[in-house]
Amino acid sequence: MKILIAMNSFKGSISAVDATDACFMAMKQVLPDAIIRLCPVSDGGDGLIDVLLRAFGGKVHFKKVTGPLFKPVLARYLMLGKTAVLEMSEAAGIKYLDPSELDCMNATSFGVGEVIKDAVLHGAGRILVGLGGSASNDAGIGCARGFGFRLLDKSGQEISGGIKGL
Hints:
elongated; 5 helices; two-stranded parallel sheet; alpha/beta
């Protein structure tokens, strides 16, 4: 018997890698002779880095950046050669907020731009961004500003942070 275990994460409870491993351990007890292949998956949100790290290796980098409500967070990204893989949720994720703090009108993606900038400084020539799990809905304004862009309105004034600035 051949079995493929391809689990995604269960938000807020278990990662794709841990779910896949748990399923494997249970299946091995019930079907010890089965040939079992493991392939944790991600939809691009939380867990993307862990899934790709397991499949391809690479080096995980850490960067202290601006979180979704402007408090510092420690974000990870993965370098696969000259390709950087980021999870938006690592810098601007819902996971950093209590339910009472959810505020997409004021949350920022600024930290995502800071992570991209750090990846470029570490030699990334290509950037892949998984967009799931974000607390922000700022149309990328924060990300662009975090990378170093200035965004101006029609009178030449800098746009204020968040989606309200648009």
